[in-house]
Amino acid sequence: SGPIEMWCGGRGMAKLFGEDFFDRSEKVDRVFKIIHEFTMAKYEALFKSENKPLGLWVAAWRGIPSLMNREMFLKYAWKYFVEYVQLCVDYGVLPVLHLDGCWDQGLDLLRELPARKCIAAFDGKTNILEAKSIAGDRMCIMGDLQAEKVAFSTPGNCYDYCMMLIKEMGDGFILAPGCDLPFNGKLENAQ
Fold first, then answer.
1. Do the strands 173-177 and 55-60 form a parallel or antiparallel pair, or are they unpaired?
2. C-alpha–C-alpha distance, residues 8 and 10, integer Å
3. Distance between CA atoms of 96 and 111, rounded to whole angstroms?
4. Using CA atoms, how far apart are residues 153 and 147, in angstroms rounded to an integer?
5. In this structure, what is the dihedral angle of CA atoms 171, 172, 176, 180, given to the nearest 10 degrees?
6. Residue 79 to residues 2, 112, 165: CA-CA distances in angstroms?
7. Which residues pair with 176 in a beta bridge?
8. CA-closest candidate to residue 135, choices 159, 152, 118
9. Is the pLDDT of residue 61 over 80?
10. What SS3 class is residue 44?
């Protein structure tokens, strides 16, 4: 997770988006750099250890294109995200990009990531067919059985949706729940 995710977890989104970016942007920059350096060193140590993972969940759930304008997204989120992905690739660790929220306005940026080295996992808020069209030749696309479908839809509706995804997405696609299966999900909708 990038600095923005940690900041939101510790200070809250309202403070970050409502005050800190505008009233204390220089301080936010300095703190984000410190958090990023710490996190990169932590991951690098893990990747050099005997416990090196096969893959790493590289998450973005608050630092996303739909929650800020492009300039702010590039400055406060994307630049750090790219470095986490590259570190994984440099050490032969598969980056699984956990892309919560709507990424429609940032799908073009996924083309900047190393080709055929990532899995982009969406949670149902992004147009997954558009993601496939824009970045599917460069990375595997995963997801999109939305939590609300598993919780509130019918087995037939879920089945039809999943079959449509399999057909439309083709090669380079992993059908999976978007984000996680919800606690109130119906087993029959996920089978």
1. unpaired
2. 5
3. 15
4. 10
5. -160
6. 10, 11, 31
7. 144
8. 118
9. yes
10. helix
What is the pTM for the complete model shown?
0.93
**Which SS3 state, helix, strand or coil, does residue 176 take?**
strand
Question: Does residue 129 contact residue 169 with C-beta atoms inside 8 Å?
Answer: yes
- Using alpha carbons, select from 75, 30, 77 the residue that is nearest to residue 85: 77
Please state, in angstroms and rounded to a whole number, the distance separating the CA atoms of residues 95 and 98: 9
CB atoms inside a 10 Å sphere around CB 90? 11
Token readout for 141 is 């696309």
Vertex 149, ends 148 and 153: CA angle to 5°? 115
- In Å, how far are 44, 114, 157 from 153, measured between CA atoms? 43, 37, 6
R_g (Cα) of the chain, nearest Å: 18
pLDDT confidence tier of residue 29, bands split at 50, 70 and 90:
very high
Q: Is the predicted pLDDT of residue 10 greater than 90, yes or no?
A: no
